[in-house]
Amino acid sequence: MTTEPRGRLYQDSEFEFNEFNGLKIEKLIVCENPETKEPILIYIKVENRNWHQFFLDAGIGFWENWDEIDIEDDSYDFIDFTDKFDLKNKVINRIFCKKDLNNSRIILELKSNEKLILKCKEPNIFDSDCELIM
Which of 49, 72, 52 is nearest to 63 (CA)? Predict the structure, then answer.
């Protein structure tokens, strides 16, 4: 198996990440602001791959591979959303980021026709608070 590129892979209002297409989700951890419950970073682990993280900031989407995750920061809550959204072993069909008015959204489409979406609550307001919906 070849090693995955490390670091920031995408930083744009539109991109497609296809390395996880056809792979099963093992874990999804959300780093939340404890006061607002806003998702700050989303960590995803799929079969036979490193941990990746994605987030929205300044109106655009980011996708990164840092191999591991650091969930030791007491300033944030780290919540396992794998069971909450019933994601264990669900197969990824497509991952992409697209424009959403003055912001962007990151969408994980699953083979089960479900979608996991990280988006701004008010897409017309630049860099508004985010939410993760299924």
Answer: 52
